[in-house]
Write a structure and sequence with these properties.
alpha/beta, 3 domains, 3-stranded antiparallel β-sheet, about 450 residues, Rossmann fold, Aspartate Aminotransferase, domain 1, globular, 7-stranded mixed β-sheet
């Protein structure tokens, strides 16, 4: 009952109430407080130690005596905000010689899709190699890896296949295999937890940087577990010498709020841990267009709004589906970006009351149904009139089957049931690579 912030507040209130008791009753009550506090400490996120922290506890053993490259960004910090860059620079028995940056840059300064060149880090004066351009560069070259014995990966991911960090990780593993460089993953939590597996599997015909590996849209694995699967399933042409430094205390049932860890924005549009949940609940709609999903507000991905939407009616339609763990509320927004920039829009806000129960990916498709019921709007047909390409929508979905089914009038419920046989096969296939218990 006390394994979250609400529980801690309840415990504090209980303590205040029993402190006024006298005699034996007070002793028993305070003993109960002590036991609850012990449970709170042991069962809460305070026990989760990141791979980077475990590595430091082991005095950086796997890196001892080696020249180290570090693939990281602003998320590469421990629970106290200490960056892995600084900790490796101060480690006595290894030498940090180069930094590598994924999409958004070393300090998370670049917006989605913007390439950036190699440079020098102003703080450390170390070379920074871009793994997101310019041009076709998406993995370390032999020149970048020259003089490096081991490449360390410490990047917080979102648990969503289309987020490019896991593509970067696997391609870096492949480059290290080609160059004879070791690869070490400092494991981190999947913020969606380790049990949520949703969405379509990748069709190899749609393999891209936003869908590189043969996994579903939400795959329910940590980056370390996924690295083991990439290696074990031979999804890269050159296998590498892989070491995963596991976390201590993380369980598959944990979402981010259960870990007790601070959240660092994984990219400019994901400022909060809760944003990850909303990203997968509305992000696919953003690839079709025609509605605002809250970009250019202080709550990206949390809204569905457009000039033709009646927020109260849309909320009723969506809530009538009776989907667990969520509700929609009427809302009004004025986005500062996108198709409706500067316009006051009516719509709904998605509230996740029990995130672990909410069917996140399917919400995109229930919304498409609801738009037709509300206003007879078919976002795909509207996009065709705008002469918009569906290339990115298909790449992000990992298949064109989703779009074709929706255009043919298939329901969201049909899509979810159609995913299940492939998802069950994936759950069995990933089992050999999992590191953590339920």
């Amino acid at each position: 009952m006390f394994q979250n912030s609400k529980g801690r507040k309840s415990l504090h209130r209980f303590y205040c109430e029993v402190s006024g008791l006298g005699g034996y009753s007070r002793v028993l009550a305070l003993a109960a407080v002590w036991m609850a506090a012990s449970f709170l400490w042991c069962g809460s996120g305070a026990e989760v130690r990141l791979g980077s922290e475990v590595l430091a506890d082991r005095t950086f053993g796997p890196l001892r005596g080696k020249r180290v490259g570090l693939l990281t960004n602003a998320t590469g910090v421990d629970r106290h905000g200490r960056s892995t860059i600084d900790r490796l620079r101060r480690a006595a028995d290894c030498r940090l010689v180069a930094l590598f940056a994924p999409e958004h840059g070393l300090r998370g300064e670049h917006p989605a899709g913007r390439e950036f060149p190699n440079g020098t880090d102003a703080t450390t004066k170390l070379p920074v190699y871009s793994l997101y351009g310019p041009g076709p560069v998406r993995k370390p070259t032999r020149a970048m890896l020259k003089g490096i014995d081991v490449l360390v990966y410490d990047v917080q991911d979102t648990g969503c296949r289309s987020y490019t960090y896991i593509s970067t990780m696997g391609l870096a593993m492949e480059a290290c295999g080609e160059a004879g460089v070791e690869f070490v993953v400092l494991d981190r939590p999947n913020p969606l937890g380790g049990q949520r597996v949703e969405g379509a599997m990748l069709n190899p015909k749609f393999r891209s940087f936003v869908g590189r590996w043969d996994i579903p849209y939400l795959y329910g694995m940590t980056c370390g577990e996924l690295a083991r699967m990439i290696e074990g399933e031979r999804w890269i042409t050159n296998r590498c010498r892989l070491t995963v430094v596991p976390m201590h205390g993380w369980r598959r049932s944990m979402v981010w709020d259960d870990t007790g860890l601070p959240w660092v924005a994984t990219s400019p549009n994901v400022p909060r841990a809760s944003t990850v949940l909303h990203l997968v609940a509305t992000g696919l709609l953003g690839e079709i267009g025609g509605v605002s999903i809250g970009m250019g507000t202080d709550r990206p991905f949390e809204y569905l709004a457009a000039p033709w939407i009646d927020g109260a009616r849309l909320a009723r339609i969506l809530n009538d589906y009776g989907l667990p763990g969520l509700r929609y509320e009427p809302a009004v927004i004025t986005p500062t970006r996108g198709l409706y920039r500067g316009k006051r829009l009516s719509g709904v806000r998605l509230r996740l009351t029990k995130p672990a129960e909410a069917p996140l990916v399917a919400l995109n498709f229930y919304a498409l149904e609801a738009f037709k019921k509300l206003a007879g709007r078919d976002l795909f047909a509207d996009a065709i009139k705008r002469k918009q390409s569906f290339t990115m929508f298909d790449k992000v979905n990992g298949t064109d089957a989703t779009r074709k089914a929706l255009q043919a009038g298939k329901t969201a419920r049909y899509l979810v049931s159609n995913w299940e046989p492939d998802l069950e096969q994936f759950r069995k296939r990933r089992q050999a690579y999992l590191l953590y218990s339920p």
